[in-house]
Amino acid sequence: MHTIQHDPAHQRFSTEVDGHPARVDYTFDPTGAVMAITHTIVPPEIGGRGIAGALVQAALEHARAQGWKVDPQCSYADAWMRRHPEFDALRA
Questions:
Q1: Residue 57 to residues 15, 21, 45, 52, 85: CA-CA distances in angstroms?
Q2: C-alpha closest to that of 56 among 32, 29, 31, 74
Q3: Strand 12-17 to strand 5-7: parallel, antiparallel, or no bridges (unpaired)?
Q4: Which of 18, 35, 57, 86 is the most buried (most CB within 10 A)?
Q5: pLDDT in tens, 4-37
Q6: 36-89 pLDDT tens trace
Q7: Range of the domain at 70
Q8: How many CB atoms lie within 10 A of CB 15?
């Protein structure tokens, strides 16, 4: 799989595949304890390779390690979490 970087200053997890950037963006609620995943962006040129899922999983694993809850506001992140019940405990 491709290397996924976490950029906390820009609140995103990102990777680059075949010269195309892909990312998951997030924000925090006012308490700082709930990560809201707001966007999952993978260009069509690199779609269908599991990149979006890998980005969401990286974000969720980071949230778990930090003790945060997750609000999957992005429809892709919400659907991915529904398909992976091992992350149910993270839902805000």
A1: 13, 17, 21, 9, 12
A2: 74
A3: antiparallel
A4: 35
A5: 999 999 999 999 999 999 999 999 988 889 999 9
A6: 999 999 999 999 999 999 999 999 999 999 999 999 999 999 999 999 999 999
A7: 5-90
A8: 20
Q: How many CB atoms lie within 10 A of CB 59?
A: 26
Q: Identify whether the C-beta of residue 25 lies closer than 8 Å to the C-beta of residue 42.
A: no
Chain centroid to CA 31: how far?
20
Residue type, 50: G
Phi-psi domain of 35 (left: phi exceeds 0; alpha: psi -120 through 50; beta: other)? beta
Domain of residue 36, CATH code:
3.40.630.30
Q: Identify the helix (H) or strand (E) that includes residue 76.
A: helix 75-83
In the chain, the number of structural domains is 1
